[in-house]
Amino acid sequence: MKSIRSRRLRLPLTILSVLALLALMYTLLVGVWLPRYLQRNLPGRLAQELQVQVHLKNLRIHPWPLSIEIDQLSVERQHQAILAWTHLQLRPLLWASLTHRAPVIGRIELDDPVLHLHIDPQGRVNLLDLVPPAAPHPAQAPASHMAWRIDHLVLHNGRIDFSDARVSPTLSCQIEHINLHLHDLGTLPDSQGQHHLQLSTSDGAQLLWQGEVHLAPLSVHGHLRLRQLDLAFWSRLSPQPLPLRLVQGRLGLDLDLDLPVGAQLPEMQHGQLSIEQLVLHDPAGRALLTLPAADIAGIQLSPSRHQARIESLSLQGGQLDLLRDAQGRLAMLPATSTTRAPSRSTVAPNKNAASAAWNWQLGLLAWQHGRIDLHDLRLPLQARMEDINFSVRGLNQDPSSALQLQLDSQLQQGHLQVQGQLVRQPLHADMDIQLAQMDLRAAQSLLARSTWIDLEHGQLASHGHLHYAASGPAALSYSGSLDLSHLGLSDERDRQPLLSWSEVRIPALDFSLQPRQLKIPRIELVDPYARLTIDRQRVANIATLMRPTAAQAARSPRRTTDQARAKSQPWPIHIGEIHIDNGAIAFADLSLNTPFAAGINALHGPIRHLDSNTRTPASVDLQGLINHYGQVQIAGRVNPLAAELFLDLGVHFHNVELSTLTPYAAEFAGYRIDQGKLDMDLHYFIEHRQLQAENQVRLNQLRLGQHVDSAEAVHLPLKLALALLRDADGNIDIDLPISGSLDNPDFKYGKLLWKVLLNLLEKAVTSPFRLLSGLVHGSDPEALKHIDFAAGSAQIDPAQAQKLMQLGQALLQRPALNLRIQATTDKVADTYGLQSQAFDAEWNQRHKSTNDELKALADWFRQLAGPARLEALRQLSMVPDPASSAAHPKLILNAADYRQRLQTAITQSLPLGPGALRELALARAQAIKSQLIEQAHVPDSRLYLVDPGHAQALADQVSTALQVDAP
Asked: What is the pTM of this model?
């Protein structure tokens, strides 16, 4: 029994001994010899196969349970670290592997792994050095995927040192604090692939990924969370050069990823993306976009269904700086683009996916409290929009769908609101626009480019509806109101005001391009002011407002076909009424030695029915004041909007102080003006480019003052001219008609008017009696110049008396005129006349004492000349006797001839006093003066006797010259 029992116990003991021996051998082999062998030979083998240096501090294998631990491993190549860790534990599951007939690893745990990932300038990754070169072998059918599973994969505090030398300077970064927990990863059917990955970067970015991965077949489900990713840093890895330089920005992302079985791209759901402190620069290094925050919510992406949806894209704050260069291009893209050659790993695009149409939708695009600065170097122009609140709803792949737009912003210190619908294709827009108090000073750069105008202030406001449709002929229309207030334009050169008004109100307007029209029922112009100045060179300021280069272009005689067509087809404009309230015009002439200044103020009134489509002209009825007391009225009809100008306009000035015109009088007349009033009625009629102008001027109580030396003064006796024109009431009425063609290049209205005035004055002073004769009906201008007397006489006959009456009537109508009477005598004719008068007087006495007149005359001559001369005179009167023989005629005395010879000789022999001729002249002058005073009632104070002169008698008539003069 004992032997049987001992045999029965021997067998198990033997088996146990064998098993114990085997276990011991297994323990010694696997737990002692194998680790030492591997630790001694593995680094050299790896160095030989991979051309790397492997440093291993300790390798342990725990045979019960089977697990492998490797401490302080490092892999280097050419003294450059590639891979290292402090501790690795690997525990395979033999029983599970036998059960599943596939490798099953229970746990892999790695502590402090460090991976040095480097990409050289040629794009080669250093990790490829850890892959042994493949041995050549004949092509064969690909093997089926091997089944395997890892129950637990744990990575503690990992780190990746990454560098990329393809960019300059070399991009370097550390991905650290890598912690990975993975469960049931493998290709076995029951593998769940639950995982959790967490890591951070040296620049503060954090990534969290958790979910499930199924490898057979491949599918991924999980949630990705990314925080504080430095966009500026990682943008340098872009395979294509970016058109803009991303200077700063942080990215955050939350989304669910789902890669179904058989899918090539993952599905994204419930995505949230945020960007903070984004800064973009243009290629020139100028700040383009600064954005504090951007949030994208509700991201859904389904590549399988070709659908993408974003609930909202919201931008918070930020600033966009837009620059347009001198060539008109936005300075956002580089002038030339350089592209990097595609890498070998580039995935070929899916032709089916590319050809399929995507359905996409962005529910809301919004920007709140933003700002846009526009710098246009071509115009040039600078503008700013601040506190922008902008939203677009309904963006999708259909360009014909309507978008809902809203904009609320501060524009140039004003307030802009836009709300309406927009269709992208064909472009169609319906917008309600409200603009309040927009500052117009931003337009100063536009004016300064071509003019000397300085826009000092001005505000624009509008409220209306804008419509645009690009289908067919582009149709643009705007209906609403317009208000341009507090406008102030000045001349940059002298800093003086040029044009201003308090307000221009247009309560309603209707503008459209198709059909072309502009309708404005009423324009209210409040407190308009304009300044017109003539400089030292006699050039008006408005004629030199264009800068030289622009002015030369403006003077170009060439006209394009479009310009000619525009002239022949004027824009259809209708303005119901323009009402001017309290207007003012300031005029200054600095070309005079004494500068002149005047102004029209308190100008008010309407201009009604301006229309370019009708021949009915507009009516004008404006009234104002000149220098506060004079009056001006502008009334008539005009149509400046028509293709051909029509004008029938009257301009009336009343009670204008002439003393204000002293600078002009001193410059062009050589006299100051002491006093006077001006009334002027001007009427202009233009039709078919022909001008007919009537200029009626009345000068009331004009008095010239001190004489002024002036090189520009006319060389005329101006005082005489004015005296000839001044009537009995002290008024001067002048009628200056002008006519001519506006197309005549030599027709200049101002010069022509001045020429007509000078001609009038010259005719007045050179032919004063012609002007005076026009005042009395039936008078002869030539006859009034002189009074005729019989030789030796101072008696005025009836014909001459009638002339003096007519002259007196004319002088009474020109009270400013004086008459200069210069009596004249003819030495021969008047001497003989006076001797004849003396002869008649003495003869009357001698004739009374004798009856023989011939004897009495002979005795008188004998006493005066002696007997010899008497006999000689008698012989001159002897004639042949008709009754005697013709051969020997008898001489007889011709008594009649003898008597005449005696009378003539006696008359010529009578002596006259030394002042006889002067006394005759003075008597004639006095006779004229007495006739004018007593019969014509001309005041004695206006008649002046001039020292006598000499004249030549004509037909025994001696003329006494008359001259008019002014005091």
From this structure: 0.71
